[in-house]
Amino acid sequence: MRYNVELILSNENIPKDKNRIIISLLKHIYESYDKDYYVSLYENEENKSKSFAFSLYMPNCEFTREEIIIPNKKIILNFATADMRDGILFYNAALANKGKPYKVKDNSITINRINMNKEKIITNDYAVYSSMSPVVVREHKGDNEKTWYHSLNEEKGKEIFIENIKYQLLDSFGEERRLDIEEVDFQVLINKEVKVKHYGIEILSNICMIKVQAKPYILDYIYKSGIGSKRNSGFGMLDLV
Amino acid sequence: MGEKTRLYMEDWLYNSGLVGFYNVLKHAENDVVIKQNYIEFESDALVGFEKKYFNYFIDKYKDTLSLNKIISFEKFILHHEENNFENFNEKSLEFTNKYISDVAKKQIKSNSYKSAYELIESPVDILGLEKNLKTINLKKKQEIRDILPEIKDIFDLMKQVIKYMKLEESRKYIGAKNAMYSVIKNGWNGVCFLNPQTKEKDMYIDYKCYFIDPTIEYLNTDKSKFKYSCFSCNRKMKDFSNDLSFLNSTGFDVSRKSSHVWDFQNDIAVCPICKLVYSCVPAGISYLYDKGIYINDNSSMRNAIAINNKIHMGIYRQKDEDKKLTYKALVESINEEYNDKIKYELADIQLVRYEDGKYRFNILSKNSLKVIKDSEDDLNKLINCGFKEINTYFNVYELVIDRLLNSQNMFTLIQKMLHYKLSQPRDSYYHTFHITRILRINIRFLKGVGCMKGVYKDIVKEGNDAGEKLREKYRSKGSVDKLSGISYRLLNSLKTNNVDSFMDTLLNCYMYVKSSVPEIFLDTLKDEDKFKTIGYAFVAGLIEGRKENNTDNENGGKDNE
Ligand SMILES: [Zn+2]
């Protein structure tokens, strides 16, 4: 399920750490619509892997040192999920909060319009995706070790990336699909490294176009739920090319 | 003579013969001893058995015999004569004409009646009366009172016909002919009086010579030197002259098989007593026209007799002649007979149906019986529901029971009914709230087979309410016309079990009316049965709104437009 939601701002400038604001908005609408669901998403398990991804589109925006200036005070929030339940609850929660301003810093966000986008159907055993929000390749070593972020321009980054994909797929589809998952492969067609400010730190990530070979149901899942790490924090949302 | 003979229960067909044999003797007020797994009769009971045999059918199937249909017109004549034809109107004329052409003339000159006249001693020239029987037409500018003299003439003629049909001999021979061709023929055929080449014109004598005399002779014979034994009862017998090929479609067709298996005939030969028992199969099975039902409850002879007699009574207790439902009687009998036993140790019972010339078998499983029992109220509401498919009328009640007996769920039936409600509303005699009743029956069935675990809330009601509310919202937007297209799409998703496309359509609907998606749909996502149950309940609500639901009455779809 894919939606695009029009958000209206009261001021034209927002902090550069924009995902943080959107995550806060999401938590707010879920908490006000369905407390149990909110708890299951954000409180029960830390870093619980959620099945949705989102990206932001800010027409004519301008990046300054600390802020983003959006002259027409409009943000389009793209939201995608492979899970029907998450998709319905997102719609219901957004609808329930429609027209109600949500205060953030010196600004406020109001949900204005909610649209559903038609999803494309994948029948081939490969697909070409472009990132709608930057893709994060994260390596997490041990408990207290440092976290590394990789570039898809490097071999090491590609290795970690495919490991992460397979881990994500196994988690969703279970052991019985292991054979299908083992044969997933990908190539980077285009990539540009970017640094994104996220909760105060700069994260190395990738704006890219990739080609993935897999069974259609796996390709469909990737299309809908996004790829890479931090998917539910504004990274790794994909579109089909 | 005066000796006692025991007949033990065997397979279902033999048991139906035993029940029939018992019924015939009981109807003639003969004593028969019923024990756990056998009945016992005295040889004297066989005296005049041929009369008892036909009497049973003539009495028990009274209403369906064409002889009684002819006679039943007498009431109509007397009614109009008593009232001096004052309320005899065009409708009465139409009824009279239809009766003359479709019942009286048709039957009187039929071959089976003609062959019976030869046996009836009467000076009346019945075929001559038939020639004079004519329908009466109202000419232009004529009124009923202008043709009253003709009507009275025809009534006089009919009275003579009816007087003839009421003769004791007419009852005996025409009644027997009726019974032969409308009842007995369903059980066996091709021999004795049902052999087209039989030399004996009197069916009573034919039956006596073919079935009874050999039995009496056999009972009186010393059997100690006989070498062979009966296929059914194991009694000693002399030879293999009695096979079972006269029984309908039971696989005992000796004439075809004997050429391949040289000793096949040996295996299935029976003694004369058993052959007589088998001739009583049609008195054990309950028939409605050319369909039959027999419940093989072999827990005891008494149960077998009781349940099958209940079914017979149940079928003929139903008032409306055209709408008699074979399963209705079955269900009532089951509910009465097994009410207490269902909870306890009841074993699965075999149900035998005779349809299209073949026997079909179902197991009345514990689950099916329990669902039928628990769904009494829902089922009763379905009695008058039906739909037309091509040119055939299907009764929903019968279809639902049929599925329960075959341990099938109701989803394809519901799919069809909702589809017809959209595509041919005039030939769909039910409301969508009847569909929610079927969904409830279906939930009981599914739970009984271990599905739908953890369903405690009324998902049918919630799904249905959601559909009704969405319909209301479309109505207030002036977009109710869009709903049939949407319903078709939803039905298609349900049929192909495609949750994604169902949800896609659903979300678009809710976006269109700017409403949230009811929580109940979150339940549909994990389980196919829940998805279909809620989905169909929803479509039912969407097709037909809330307002119409107030008429959930006994009439089923009768008041449907
Ligand atoms: Zn025998």
* Number of E-type strands of chain A: 14
Shape of chain B: flat
What ranges of chain A have pLDDT less than 50 throughout 5 or more consecutive residues?
none
Radius of gyration based on Cα positions of chain A: 18 Å
Please give the share of residues in helix of chain A.
25-40%
Helix content of chain B: 40-55%
Number of helices of chain A: 6
Spatial shape of chain A: globular
- Distance between the ends of chain A: 17 Å
| Count of β-strands of chain B | 12
Structural class assignment of chain A: alpha+beta
Bound molecules: zinc ion
N to C succession of SSEs of chain A: EEHHEEEEHEEEEEHHEEHE
Structural class assignment of chain B: alpha+beta
Description:
The complex is a heterodimer of chains A (241) and B (561). Chain A has six helices and 14 strands. Chain A starts with a strand and ends with a strand. With 241 residues, chain A is an alpha+beta fold. Chain A has a five-stranded antiparallel beta sheet, covered by helices on one side. In chain A, strands 12-13-9-14 form a four-stranded antiparallel beta sheet, with helices on both faces. In chain A, strands 2-5-4 form a three-stranded antiparallel beta sheet, with no helix packed on it. Chain B has 25 helices and twelve strands. Chain B starts with a strand and ends in an 18-residue tail after the last helix. The C terminus of chain B is likely disordered. The complex binds zinc ion.
Key structural traits:
heterodimer; A: about 240 residues; alpha+beta; five-stranded antiparallel β-sheet; four-stranded antiparallel β-sheet; about 35% strand; B: about 550 residues; three-stranded antiparallel β-sheet; 12 strands; about 55% helix; flat; disordered C terminus; binds zinc ion
